[in-house]
Amino acid sequence: MADKLGTPYLQKALNQMLTNHIRDTLPSLRTKLQAEVLSMEKEVEEYKKFKPGDPAMKTKAMLTLVQTYSLEFERRIEGGGTSDGAASQELSGGAKISRIFHERFPFELVKLETDEKQMRREISYEIKNQLGVRVGLFTPDLAFEEIVKRQIKKLLQPSLKCVDMVSTELGAVVQTCSEGMAKYPRLRDETERVLSTQLREQEQACKQHLKLMVEIELSYMNTNHPDFIGFDRASKTKQGGTRTASHQLIRKGWLSIPVSLIKGSTREYWFVLSSDSLTWYKDNEEKEQKYSLRLEDMRVRDIEAGRFSIGKKHVFALFYTTGKNVYKDKDQLEMVAQSEEEVENWKASLLRAGVYPQSDSSSRIDSGEQDSIDPQLERQVETIRNLVDSYFSIVSKNIRDSVPRASYCMINMHHVSLPQLKEYISKDLLAMIYAAGDQSEMMEESQEATLRREDMIHMYHTCNEALSLIRDVTSKTCMAPSYSLADKTHMTDKQTSLSL
């Protein structure tokens, strides 16, 4: 039994157990290392050919980066996803700009609607001011022109705001696309500077164009427009809007409904907005419906979040103009969103469904100023009101159609003094970068990129060395059963030696 007892035997037994364990582990380790080497091979080959001080390499790298930037910018604006093929977690620049054109800008226009009482009061005063000391037998057309011009002037601010929102999104796209130049921080900064300057110039040119459009509308009242009702039909026209007739899906998303006003607790539901109803479900599978509302005679208004004790979240509410309850025994339905932008997007979607914001009724006729009702004046006010509504509708449609076109000119316009931003990137950006300074300094790598390249090459060689060691271990060691006190197998020193 002497050869199976003592420290030498224990050493041999434990050594063989360790050898067996390592041999069992090596296949999976070798597979992981081989995958790492394969993933690094292409990049390492480029690094091996890379010469930081070679002017030709720097020029080639600059050309490649600018071309890639141009393609990425066009892809993000015109559509087609990102160049890396990653899953989309948010809307890209072009999709956000489209939402501004079709949701945010129309919503800003609707917010211009004047309170009906205030409008009729202004028309009444304008008619009286135009007549002076005379008693008017006919409706003065100058009163119509003055009132409608005031309304047209109000269109300018939403139009300029639309340009600002588009410009902000374009600036975000410019910065996002420049992330591919992070390896060369000076080149990235210069690219952002050049494009931001060009974007500001185009923004100002676009705003000047919109101001000119409004001035053109103000310069001449085209009362011969085929859609204008004219004085003959003005007294017979009734005010009223139209709603989308067909059932059309407009928006889906998560919103919360306050449960307790005291505790400030809310419950989240999945809301589905169509052209004629608002429905919410327990979850986004849309199997368990909680409630559904008809949108007829419905309006939307903002609610102060502080009254619900729910912190910094944003609240808006739906209510019926007829005064009936909206949801169970509640006269309005409060909904909680995570951000102000989300609230604005929902309100813009509700606008598409025909749900308008609550009119601002803060302007009231002061006591003592309200004149006695004159039947003739009332008829004249009604006529002017209908004329203003008809003509302003024509101008508003023109502006609603023209402003997105003018805003898009910042991206894709032709035959103007300033080149389009997309064309500027593809044709002029490289020349402007060359003219900005020393290209050799501009193409200096960042310290992080240099360290990453050195670490990558070092890791590649280390993995290859590890694979070589694994092959040696596999070929120079043998598999044997682990020792026990009853084992009669002998092992030589050469068989038990393991070198790593």
Task: Provide a concise account of the structure shown.
The chain is of the alpha+beta class and 500 residues long. It is built from 14 helices and eight strands.
Can you characterise this structure?
Its EC number is 3.6.5.5. InterPro entries: Dynamin, Dynamin_stalk, GED, GED_dom, PH-like_dom_sf, PH_domain. Pfam families: Dynamin_M, GED, PH. Keywords: GTP-binding, Hydrolase, Nucleotide-binding. With 500 residues, this protein is α+β, with helices and mostly antiparallel strands. 56% of the residues lie in helices and 11% in strands. The protein has 14 helices and 8 strands. Strands 1-2-3-4 form a 4-stranded antiparallel β-sheet. The chain has a 4-stranded mixed β-sheet with strand order 7-6-5-8, with helices on one face. Helix 1 packs across helix 13, helix 5 runs parallel beside helix 10 and helix 7 packs across helix 11. The C terminus is likely disordered.
